[in-house]
Structures are given as C-alpha cells and as structure tokens.
C-alpha cells in the first residue's frame, strides 16, 4: 500500500497507542517511538509495528508512535487503521 | 437454550483496556459494541481493534457477541465481513427487522462457506428497539435458525414511542411481556434492557426482579459492577432447588406406585409444576457448570 496522505489512529489512553503516519518522500520506513515501557518493550513494539507495515505492503512511510502500554493486538490494529486511512490500494 | 445468559455486558469496541479484560469480568456474555459506543469517525478503527481482539485474546468461557451497526448504515457490510471472518459466537443486529435478519443470515452463510466454518455456527441476537420491531418480533425471531436470544432495547424503544423512560418501567411492561412470551415460544433467551443509573442499587435490584418476574431470562449490563447483582437475582433460590428436587422425587415415587395424580405438602402436583421443577434444576445445573 502507498501512503498518500497524513493519517492518525488510536488514542493516548492507557493500554492504547497513538499512531501518526505520513508519506516519506525520501523512501523507506522512518519510525519514531515513545513509550511508557520503552526500556522493557521498546524493541518488541518497534518489531510489531514494522511487521504490521510489512504485512500491509507499506514500504515508504514516516511513523510517529506514542505508546501507553498497548498489547500487540492493539498495536497491530492501530497501525493497520492509520495505514488504511492514509493509503490507496 | 443450553448456554447460560444471565448477563450480557456491553463494552465499547474502541477501548483496548476494556476489551482485554472482557473475559475476566464474570459476565456470561460480553457485547463488544461497534454501534452507539463508537463515534462515526472511529468506526473503522473499532472494527479492526475488535477483530484483532477476537483473534488474539482469551475470553475463556465468556460468550462473545459483537453488536454491528444497523444494516441501513454504510458500516454494516464491513462489520459483518470483518468480524464474521474471525468467528465471534454471535452478532447482535441493531434495530432489527425481519428483512435484516434474513440478510445477515445470508451474508453469514456466504462468509462461513468462504472461511470453511460450520454453516450456522455464528449465532444472531436481534435487538428489539423500535415499535415496528416489537410488533414484528415473532417474524424477526422466526427469520433465522441462528437466533439464540433477543435483547430488548428500552431506551431507543421509548424514544421511538416519544415517551419518557422511567425507573419503574411501566412504559415497557408490554414490551417486556411480548419479548418474554415470544422468546419462550421459540425456546430462546429473552434479555432485558440495561438499567442505566449505576448509583441506584435498590432501584437496580427492583428492576431485575421485575424483569425476571415477567419471564425474561437475563439482563444486559453497562458496567461490570452490575454483573454479580444480576447473577444473584437470576439464580434459583436454594429453597426453590430443594422443592424442585422433592417434586421430581415425588414424581418417581408416584410412577413406581402407579399413581397418575399425587400431592406434595398437601398440594396437587401436575404437569406445569413438574415442568417448572425441571427448569429450575436445569438452570441450577448450568450455573454449577459455570
């Protein structure tokens, strides 16, 4: 999927994650993550986001994620929602 | 029936914290809501979140029902396709009409074929919340063999009627009777409307007693704190269980002695009393297994 316009998904509530996605004209995936559990789960959250993007066929995007302790199912759901809101198939 | 549905607990479909606790709150069923609890701008996000929750989370033996948006909206088709593909126990159809239930049944059948699921495995709960639906409830329930229960939605129903919703509930006396009788005729569950004042505990108890007294078999809840009170009131009382066991023992004795008609504690025992005793013991056995 191609990221065509900026989009948002999720909330800043506890157990949720807020995803902001933008087109990346320079190419590739640029991921910035802030998390309340950065030290313990930062790399795992990044891995889940990247894996979800790959599954959706996203190759170029800038992503800012603000995590409030979301489980994997929520991270995947919010990334997918943001991508679908920003993309054309 | 077969499944105990004393409580059906509504949970907003776009709230991860609540979704991940849905299986441990003690309700017999949870209703993950994609309709009223979700704003139009978040319908897509909630649908994806609920789909993932069903795929990934453990709900133990809690029945998983998803309330989809009315078929008249642009959201309904995607709700059915996306949620149906992860096989919830049931879909709840808002503002249901007979045509809606026929259509949901057909769409689920197609989906079940495509996904390789057992045909008819995903059940349906029509939500009766308009005057039209209430007056057509017999046709609505009869429209699909998937239907395992009906939920009465009194807030929308009284809004449709243009009347005030009160705690004493005189205005829904007829609706409760009609739902209870129709469900009994079809052998399915009749679930009462929620009680929305969380601070009025005594009013809440009276409301449950009233619904139970009219033949409704369970009640919907809007807060986990309501679950235990509903279970307590819908449980057969100990003395009812003891009496029911005595009735069935007396039936056995009478049959052994060749008696067609007999009495217990000076009162004649006939078919309705035996039937009620069996129902009480059946409910008690379901509760033991939960």
What name does CATH use for the topology of chain A?
Ribosomal Protein S5, domain 2
Structural class by SSE content of chain B: alpha/beta
Output the CATH homologous superfamily of the largest domain in chain B: Phosphoenolpyruvate-binding domains
CATH topology of the largest domain in chain B: TIM Barrel
**Secondary-structure element series of chain B:** EHEHEHEHEHHEHHEHEHHEEH
Task: Please describe the structure with a list of short key phrases separated by commas or semicolons.
heterodimer, A: 89 residues, Ribosomal Protein S5, domain 2, 4-stranded mixed β-sheet, two-stranded antiparallel ribbon, 2 helices, 37% helix, globular, B: 290 residues, alpha/beta, TIM Barrel, 2 domains, 8-stranded parallel beta barrel, two-stranded antiparallel sheet
Please describe what this structure looks like.
The complex is a heterodimer of chains A (89) and B (290). Chain A is α+β, with helices and mostly antiparallel strands. Chain A has one domain (2-88): 2-Layer Sandwich (Ribosomal Protein S5, domain 2), CATH 3.30.230. Chain A is built from two helices and six strands, in the order ββββαβαβ. Chain A has helices spanning 38-55, 72-86, and strands at residues 2-3, 7-9, 17-22, 29-35, 61-67, 87-88. In chain A, strands 2-3-5-4 form a four-stranded mixed beta sheet, covered by helices on one side. Chain A has a two-stranded antiparallel ribbon with strand order 1-6. In chain A, α1 (38-55) crosses α2 (72-86). The longest helix of chain A is centred in the middle third of the chain and has 18 residues, at 38-55. Chain A is globular. Chain A starts with a strand and ends with a strand. The mean pLDDT of chain A is 95. Chain B has 290 residues and is α/β, with parallel strands linked by helices. Chain B folds into two domains: 7-234, Phosphoenolpyruvate-binding domains (TIM Barrel), CATH 3.20.20.60; 238-288, no CATH class. Chain B has helices at residues 16-21, 43-56, 76-84, 98-115, 131-135, 137-142, 154-161, 173-186, 201-213, 227-234, 238-256, 271-288; strands at residues 7-12, 29-33, 63-68, 90-93, 123-128, 149-152, 189-192, 218-221, 262-264, 267-269. In chain B, the strands form two sheets. Chain B has an eight-stranded parallel barrel with strand order 1-2-3-4-5-6-7-8, surrounded by five helices. In chain B, strands 9-10 form a two-stranded antiparallel ribbon. In chain B, α2 (43-56) packs parallel to α3 and α11 packs across α12 (271-288). Chain B is globular. Chain B starts with 6 loop residues before the first strand and ends with a helix. In chain B, 42% of the residues are buried. At the A-B interface, α2 of A face α1 and α2 of B.
């Amino acid at each position: 999927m191609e990221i065509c316009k900026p989009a948002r998904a999720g909330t800043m509530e506890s157990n949720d994650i807020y995803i902001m996605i933008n087109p990346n004209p320079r190419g590739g995936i640029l991921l910035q993550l802030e998390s309340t559990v950065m030290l313990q789960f930062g790399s795992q959250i990044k891995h889940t986001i990247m894996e979800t993007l790959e599954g959706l066929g996203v190759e170029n995007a800038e992503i800012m994620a603000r995590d409030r302790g979301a489980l994997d199912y929520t991270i995947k759901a919010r990334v997918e929602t943001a991508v679908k809101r920003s993309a054309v198939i | 029936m077969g499944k105990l549905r004393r409580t059906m607990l509504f949970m907003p479909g776009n709230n991860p914290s609540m979704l991940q606790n849905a299986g441990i709150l003690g309700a017999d069923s949870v209703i993950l809501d994609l309709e009223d609890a979700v704003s139009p701008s978040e319908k897509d996000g909630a649908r994806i979140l609920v789909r993932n929750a069903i795929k990934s989370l453990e709900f133990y033996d809690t029945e998983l029902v998803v309330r989809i948006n009315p078929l008249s909206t642009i959201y309904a088709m995607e709700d059915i396709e996306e949620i149906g593909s992860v096989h919830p126990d049931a879909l709840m159809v808002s503002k249901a009409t007979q045509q809606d239930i026929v259509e949901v049944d057909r769409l689920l059948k197609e989906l079940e074929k495509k996904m390789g699921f057992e045909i008819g495995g995903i059940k349906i709960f029509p939500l009766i919340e308009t005057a039209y639906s209430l007056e057509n409830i017999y046709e609505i329930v009869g429209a699909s063999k998937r239907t395992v229960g009906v939920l009465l939605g009194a807030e929308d129903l009284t809004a449709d009627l243009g009347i005030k919703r009160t705690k004493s509930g005189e205005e829904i006396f007829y609706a409760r009777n009609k739902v209870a009788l129709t469900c009994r005729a079809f052998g399915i569950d009749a679930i009462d409307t929620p009680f929305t004042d969380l601070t009025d505990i005594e009013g809440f108890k009276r409301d449950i007693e009233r619904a139970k007294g009219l033949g409704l078999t369970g009640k919907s809840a809007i807060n986990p704190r309501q679950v235990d009170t509903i279970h307590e009131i819908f449980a057969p009382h100990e003395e009812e269980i003891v009496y029911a066991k005595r009735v069935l023992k007396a039936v056995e004795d009478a049959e052994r002695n060749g008696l067609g008609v007999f009495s217990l504690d000076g009162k004649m025992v006939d078919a309705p009393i035996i039937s009620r005793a069996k129902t009480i013991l059946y409910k008690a056995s379901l509760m033991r297994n939960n």
